[in-house]
Amino acid sequence: MTSLDIAPFANALVLGLSIASIWLIAAIGLTIIYGTVGVINMAHGEFIMLGAYTSYALQSSLGLPFLLCLPASFAVVALVGLVIERGLIRYLYNRPLDTLLATWGVSLVLMQGVRLIFGSDPKYIAVPEIFQSNVEIGFASLSVFRLVVLAITALIVAATAWLFYRTRFGMQVRAVMQNKEMAASFGINADRVYMTTFAIGAGLAGVAGSLFGVLAIVLPTMGTAYVVQAFLVVVVGGGTLMGSVAAAGLTGELQSVFAFVTNDTFARFLLYVLIVVFLRFRPRGLFAVAKGRR
After folding, report:
1. Which of 132, 138, 219, 273 gets the highest tally of CB atoms within 10 A of its CB?
2. Bridge partner residues of 181 (DSSP)
3. Do 28 and 204 form a contact (C-beta atoms < 8 A)?
4. What is the model's pLDDT at position 3?
5. Helix (H, G, I), strand (E, B), or coil: what is residue 140?
6. Domain residues of the chain, as ranges?
7. d(Cα 124, Cα 60) in Å, to the nearest integer?
8. pLDDT band at 118 (very low <50, low <70, confident <90, very high)
9. How far is residue 239 from each of residues 33, 42, 163, 233, measured CA to CA in Å?
10. How far apart are the first and last CA of the chain?
């Protein structure tokens, strides 16, 4: 194979990492909520959408720089998630079908609410000019902003791993996941753990939305485009943080390589078929952890 043949394939591999980072950052909040609380959050896509609109609103009304919009989006969407968990989700734990329907209803309410406030016309999030250029990596050419997304994703994964595996709060989370009643006997407030975890997961979706709002136009329906991939990453990864990292990397690279060989539409078809076959033989995902459920 000549260097001319290698260059496009290498570019596809690098692009696959970019795709993986996008899918992972969409999935990481969902992984936290599902892995800890056991809730299949159908409103996760709308949390992503709220993050994008938060950044747009802060830029257009206050002129806030883009990098400051990221923590602001986390705070705003985390607060929305906190209100939803306290007002609705907390009453539906251990009722998966009711939770599924309730979060789907929440997603419709959020979508229509944003449409009423901001309208249905597309919005745009501005980024500094330094992020709008391209950088050459060997044979590959990649936008600086995609590299920023990759770096932010790595930072979020590291911070999340530290929070859940190196802190007292993380120890409490793992204890509640293993046995809620036993954890309560040691003075751990499971209700507070669920509330905090749900808010963190929602906030991370808000950060994802701020990043995605730069890569695509901001619309009330934009969350739908990302939530499917987020669910696939979580399911293939087995609902664990490291599983989601591995699943995002694997699916992102496969998507990019398949698209290089065929086209984007057929690549998605092949990827979904492979995921279905994989789950047929390993329904618990890549790194599923045996645990008692609440």
Report:
1. 219
2. none
3. yes
4. 46
5. strand
6. 28-227
7. 10
8. very high
9. 9, 15, 17, 9
10. 55
Tokens 């705070």, residue? Answer: 75
Average pLDDT over residues 110-128: 92
- Give the helix ranges, DSSP H, for the chain: 3-32, 44-62, 66-87, 96-118, 144-165, 168-178, 180-185, 190-215, 223-237, 241-261, 264-281
Which amino acid is present at 14?
A: V
Residue keyed to tokens 């909520």:
33
Q: Tell which phi-psi region holds residue 119, choosing left (phi > 0), alpha (psi between -120 and 50) or beta.
A: left
Contacts of 101 (CB under 8 A, 6+ apart): none
- Copy the structure tokens of residue 251: 């699916």
**Ramachandran region of residue 285, left (φ > 0), alpha (ψ -120 to 50) or beta?**
left
**Could you tell me the two tokens for 248?**
């995002």
244-289 per-position pLDDT tens digit: 899 988 988 888 888 888 888 888 889 889 998 998 888 888 876 6
pLDDT at res. 87: 92
